[in-house]
Amino acid sequence: MSEGISTIDEYIAGFSPEIQKTLIKIRNFIKSEAPEALEKISYGMPAFYLKGNLIHFAAFKDHYGLFPGPSGIDQFEKELSPYRTGKGTLRFELNKELPWDIIKKIIQFRKNENIKKDEMKKNAKKGN
Questions:
Q1: Is-contact 38 49, C-beta < 8 A?
Q2: 54-85: per-residue pLDDT in tens?
Q3: 8-126 belongs to CATH 3.90.1150.200
Q4: Which phi and psi (to 5°) does residue 43 adopt?
């Protein structure tokens, strides 16, 4: 995670061509699943926001990380059992294909979760 990075393009450019390919693939996949989400750098990593944090992603020395928050991990605990997880964190080996089907489910879950939370906040403000 580099300091002074202000765009996802800058973040990706800091890696080797092979890592860049996968980071671009991750970015484009998230964009295709959540086209309305805003891109930004948060905590030094590429992030997508949709009525709150949707998902972060990053590359590290020996793995790729996806950060959908604790709920995004807990919801798919059984499906994620083959992968290293932590509180809100998924790790994928650099030399293996990412599980795009699971990632898609996580993104959709997080989108729906964020939209519902936002609606609840709006209704609470209205006094409903």
A1: yes
A2: 999 999 999 999 999 999 999 999 999 898 88
A3: yes
A4: 55, 30
70 in helix, strand or coil? helix
CA distances from 28 to 25, 99, 125 (A): 5, 15, 35
Whether 38 shows a pLDDT value over 70: the answer reads yes
pLDDT the model gives residue 52: 93
CA atoms within a 13 Å half-sphere pointing along the CA-CB vector of 26: 29
DSSP per residue, 1-45: --TT--SHHHHHHTS-HHHHHHHHHHHHHHHHH-TTSEEEEETTE
As a whole number of angstroms, the distance between CA 69 and CA 67 comes to: 6
User: Between 7 and 128, where is the model more confident?
Assistant: 7
* Beta-carbon contacts of residue 89 (< 8 Å; ≥ 6 apart): 65, 66, 67, 73
3-state secondary structure of 86: strand
Q: What's the pTM value of the predicted model, to 2 decimals? A: 0.90
